[in-house]
Design a protein that fits this description.
Elements: H1 2-11, E1 19-21, H2 22-29, H3 33-41, E2 48-50, E3 53-57, H4 58-72, H5 77-85, H6 94-136
Antiparallel strand pairs: 1-3, 2-3
Helix pairs in contact: 1-4, 4-5, 5-6
Amino acid sequence: MASNSASAVRHRDEHTPDSFTISEMSREFDITPRALRFYEEEGLIAPRREGAARIYSRRDWRRVGLILRGKAVGFSLDEIGELLDLYDPRDKGAAQRAAAKRYCELKEDELRRQREAIESKLGELQRFAVQLDGKCN
């Protein structure tokens, strides 16, 4: 799912349609309409309404791609929302990219700490299993 969104974000250009229906967005990103409605409820995207229909813009399309990419690397929806809100076309997204890089570095540190904790637990389990083998013989 996230890999689809990440590659889709890279391959869209001026030929991207100006608007998308909820079913088109769902197919495009391989997510459910419910997920799109949830992102709307959370204020991450803002499709316009035509009657009961939601119409998604290119901006919404890009934001969904970024939401899915952020989720794929472990960012919370709050973190993703903060990053989305930082986008400023005047700086061509420089502030947003800098903040995203900081979040990536923090997430890397967190994952390294988790890996160390897991490796420590695995060592404990192995030592315990060896002790049990010695007492069972």
